[in-house]
Amino acid sequence: MGWGTLITRRLKVFSLALFVYFDYKAVQKRVQWVSTVKKNAIWAKTHERNARRVLKLMIELEGLWVKMGQYLSTRADVLPEPYIEVLKQLQDSLPPRPLEEVCGTIEKELGKPMRQLFATFDVDPLATASIAQVHRATLEDGREVVVKVQHDGIKEIILEDLKNAKSLIEWIAWAEPQYDFNPMIDEWCKEAPKELDFNHEAENTRTVSKNLSRKTEGGSGGVSSDVDVLIPEIIQSTEKILILEYMDGIRLHDNDSLEEYGVDKKRLVEEITRAYAHQIYIDGFFNGDPHPGNFLVSKEPPHKPILLDFGLTKRISQSMKQALAKMFLSCAEGDQVALLSAFAEMGLKLRVDMPQQSMEIASIFFRQSTTATEAKENIKALNEQRERNAKALQEKMKLNKKEVKHFNPVDAFPGDAIIFMRVLNLLRGMSLSLELVHSSDMTIISHGCFSFIPAGLSASLNVRIVYLDIMRPFAESTLLGSLTRGPSTNSEWIYDSPVNSEVESKLRSLLLEMGSDKILGLQVCAYKDGKVIIDTAAGTLGKYDPRPVQPDSLFPVFSVTKGITAGMVHWLVDQGKLKYEETVADIWPKFGTNKKELIKVHHLLNHTSGLHNALGDVVKTDPMSVCDWEEMLDQIAKSTPETEPGSSQIYHYLSFGWLCGGLIEHASGRKFQEILEEAIVHPLHIEGELYVGIPPGVESRLATLTVDME
């Protein structure tokens, strides 16, 4: 491919990008002064005409742009409905390459004339894709095969297209900072060239086929890896030719044939999902490009899925595999601490500390799918959730409406996770053929970590799939495999640290007797006469976290700060900063409202302030408000006592910590954590080991609490 062709392709790409961009900008200004009904109609026409422009150029340029169009056509969460409908045409076969070119490539690669290679060779291709086209043939020994032939000159085109795509994404990020897709294109630039070597694809196919034929025990009652799918056998390969076993199948788009053959669509989608759960969580080696063209359904009962095209595969490390499994299971359990820990282990860094919103977004990836008839309401509900999250982000970061649109909450997104998310979205989103309600402005839903609305393969086949139930055993198998080993087989079950005393030696012997059946993970520390006599850590960080508990591991525990906060109040009395007989309102002026004027410091300490039920209603209406220190102190200041100060001693089960915390800050004129460190942390030499509230940056050290239902 000459320089002239390369420059022409680049000019066409950027000319269209500018044309579409300015078209949207013009329409954006135009619709400000029209009614909602007319505005929706204008946007619909704008989306359709630009989608057709994009489609026309993609078909003309072929190469990477067709592949990108195929991917975008599955992303109803990112693009307006007209784009999905128009770009869906790219899922069909492209115009075929000339037979002379095909035969020339085959003979050059295999070193023999066609007549010596094949008994028969179909002139018309079964399909033509962005990189290659596929012909049916019969070998001299009678075996029926398909021959995948790489397009002549496609390697140079793809590599140039990647450069153009990278430049285009960088320009979009500069022009519209809220649409920064650089991490995704960077990962694609790294992985896409691998598809251009069919020897690589052949080896990948053999590996996946071998992996899916193994049996693995693990999880709840064990997981069989005997996934019920078919993968064609590799016959021969070169860099540009791949010969595979022919399998007669039905395309996923062909609903009429699926109905005619009596295919159980629900079982079909479940089995495909199981196959990918196995590849990701058990093998750590998975196909990163599961679009509809890469699946067939066997015509013979029980109509198994046929998995095709393993050119773009991803191998992930054991630690990343465990982190992805931990992320999945933390969503299943609703465990925000474990989710943040999983993010840290994956290398996903956020610029904002919002556990609830992170949980909501991460859970969307694994949520139950909906049927086509339910999808509109589902999209509407998820859009409302997106708006709530944007509002929460705006309040958290104190941004105005314009600033929040340009704020990217993701600081670093690991490449391995990008491919993983892409697979989940393709599994949910391929072949979507529904009408979706979209916003009547030009906003594309961006930043997958904080606003994600995937659609569904199951929706296109009109079935409901509970992804959590299907994928959970595989994720559990990944994590529980190393947890099932008790002390007798795992010498590292008790963390290797010095024994400080005879009593600690006895404790460790007792722990080995009890074993992992009774203990998930623990830390024990004891002081005697100011010296540490026990400092033992054992077990693992959680039910779904196989990492060992270490002396610096952090356990998030509740209802234990009363002694700490009370101790800090006594310390301030010792320092002469306050007195037990002082009125709290004299120290904390906002506190002196709603009949709290007579409450004294000692009333707070001995549970006689009458504020035993303060915050109860707040926690019921918004449980996550306990994570907002200032909000809780404000609620305490507004509360009303239920009994006269000093008249009744009733356990202040929830309010005690914030009552003391507000008193500590106002009496000292300093932040709570500063006093905590001066009064307790530094004297005990436990820096980095005691926090009230989980600060950003320690998520990877956190253990995960598990309720023992027995």
TrEMBL record:
Keywords: Coiled coil, Signal. This is ABC1 atypical kinase-like domain-containing protein. PANTHER family: ABC1 FAMILY PROTEIN (PTHR43173:SF3). Pfam families: ABC1, Beta-lactamase. One of its GO terms (cellular component) is Golgi apparatus. The keyword Transport does not apply. InterPro entries: ABC1_dom, Beta-lactam-related, Beta-lactam/transpept-like, Kinase-like_dom_sf, Mito_struct-func_regulator. Residues 202-223 are annotated as: Disordered. It comes from the Eukaryota. Residues 1-17 form the signal peptide. SUPFAM superfamilies: beta-lactamase/transpeptidase-like, Protein kinase-like (PK-like). Residues 89-339 form the ABC1 atypical kinase-like domain. Residues 372-403 form a coiled coil. Residues 514-687 form the Beta-lactamase-related domain.
